[in-house]
């Protein structure tokens, strides 16, 4: 009886959310989202422990084979999972640029690692910093495509082998002269600890680009981004590129889970997108430990929340992207099987009727 009432109360809400691309009413976007969450809470959609965003179970990044001593350390979570076989196809070196085209700092192929100077460090919160690295020349661009990442490499004096981690820049691909990264430090994470200890004018090795999901304008009618923690960076890269291109009319829905409000990375950037494109972008935030008066999601992401806010699986040209800690993958989509394979689709998305080809795991 209670389940029936909950389901019925969620029905009109789901209809309203999925029609958000229609012209907005007089209420602001934030107020609209808050009203949606109020109904979700009343229907019992949100709640429970936010178990899969806790730092106690970070996702390990791809790295070089470790020695016996190195394997004793706790693996460091990545911003995204390693590339599949198709994604790891060799990136050909770019042809020599024309007089009007900017030089690409990263050209793939056999270029090897490029050491960049740390230009500045900005503290974001208690465990996250923004790092700006200068490209070799002031008029260089990164050379990254959408979506792609860079590898970082560091070998400490006590290390037998270097540690290698992939990170997705948060700066625009057309930005000249620099790269920005937003990186959280994790206990016993050798790369993130090294980065957080770096000072301006020190240098770090980078290599790439490492291609992930190839994007082109209007490739899908509607995409959903389900992220946790630092898994937000490849999602931001994709969303930023979509809304930067006037020819791209893709609709985007973000579901982003964190421990506290301070852990919501890139929130001002996403709020700017939501205010600028209210008919095409909506963001839903869920917190394990929300502050007093928090009007959005509380607890953890549930299947009912996803059913309410995501595009329906029967819509043919939709794509769901997932990125975050291991627990998020397990609950939402299932983990990648290996470096080369996406792995079987399981979890909430499978239960909700999405097909394997409708889901991509970063």
Automatic annotation (TrEMBL):
<comment type="function">
    <text>May mediate the reduction of outer membrane cytochrome b5.</text>
</comment>
<feature type="binding site">
    <location>
        <position position="166"/>
    </location>
    <ligand>
        <name>FAD</name>
    </ligand>
</feature>
<dbReference type="InterPro" id="IPR017927">
    <property type="entry name" value="FAD-bd_FR_type"/>
</dbReference>
<feature type="compositionally biased region" description="Low complexity">
    <location>
        <begin position="92"/>
        <end position="102"/>
    </location>
</feature>
<keyword id="KW-0520">NAD</keyword>
<keyword id="KW-0496">Mitochondrion</keyword>
<dbReference type="InterPro" id="IPR001709">
    <property type="entry name" value="Flavoprot_Pyr_Nucl_cyt_Rdtase"/>
</dbReference>
<feature type="binding site">
    <location>
        <position position="167"/>
    </location>
    <ligand>
        <name>FAD</name>
    </ligand>
</feature>
<feature type="domain" description="FAD-binding FR-type">
    <location>
        <begin position="111"/>
        <end position="216"/>
    </location>
</feature>
<dbReference type="InterPro" id="IPR001433">
    <property type="entry name" value="OxRdtase_FAD/NAD-bd"/>
</dbReference>
<feature type="binding site">
    <location>
        <position position="192"/>
    </location>
    <ligand>
        <name>FAD</name>
    </ligand>
</feature>
<comment type="similarity">
    <text>Belongs to the flavoprotein pyridine nucleotide cytochrome reductase family.</text>
</comment>
<feature type="binding site">
    <location>
        <position position="182"/>
    </location>
    <ligand>
        <name>FAD</name>
    </ligand>
</feature>
<keyword id="KW-0285">Flavoprotein</keyword>
<feature type="binding site">
    <location>
        <position position="191"/>
    </location>
    <ligand>
        <name>FAD</name>
    </ligand>
</feature>
<keyword id="KW-1000">Mitochondrion outer membrane</keyword>
<keyword id="KW-0472">Membrane</keyword>
<keyword id="KW-0560">Oxidoreductase</keyword>
<dbReference type="Pfam" id="PF00970">
    <property type="entry name" value="FAD_binding_6"/>
</dbReference>
<feature type="binding site">
    <location>
        <position position="184"/>
    </location>
    <ligand>
        <name>FAD</name>
    </ligand>
</feature>
<dbReference type="InterPro" id="IPR017938">
    <property type="entry name" value="Riboflavin_synthase-like_b-brl"/>
</dbReference>
<feature type="compositionally biased region" description="Basic and acidic residues">
    <location>
        <begin position="62"/>
        <end position="90"/>
    </location>
</feature>
<feature type="region of interest" description="Disordered">
    <location>
        <begin position="62"/>
        <end position="108"/>
    </location>
</feature>
<keyword id="KW-1133">Transmembrane helix</keyword>
<feature type="binding site">
    <location>
        <position position="165"/>
    </location>
    <ligand>
        <name>FAD</name>
    </ligand>
</feature>
<dbReference type="InterPro" id="IPR039261">
    <property type="entry name" value="FNR_nucleotide-bd"/>
</dbReference>
<protein>
    <recommendedName>
        <fullName>NADH-cytochrome b5 reductase</fullName>
        <ecNumber>1.6.2.2</ecNumber>
    </recommendedName>
</protein>
<dbReference type="Pfam" id="PF00175">
    <property type="entry name" value="NAD_binding_1"/>
</dbReference>
<keyword id="KW-0274">FAD</keyword>
<keyword id="KW-0812">Transmembrane</keyword>
<dbReference type="InterPro" id="IPR001834">
    <property type="entry name" value="CBR-like"/>
</dbReference>
<dbReference type="GO" id="GO:0006696">
    <property type="term" value="P:ergosterol biosynthetic process"/>
</dbReference>
<dbReference type="GO" id="GO:0005741">
    <property type="term" value="C:mitochondrial outer membrane"/>
</dbReference>
<dbReference type="GO" id="GO:0090524">
    <property type="term" value="F:cytochrome-b5 reductase activity, acting on NADH"/>
</dbReference>
<feature type="binding site">
    <location>
        <position position="233"/>
    </location>
    <ligand>
        <name>FAD</name>
    </ligand>
</feature>
<dbReference type="InterPro" id="IPR008333">
    <property type="entry name" value="Cbr1-like_FAD-bd_dom"/>
</dbReference>
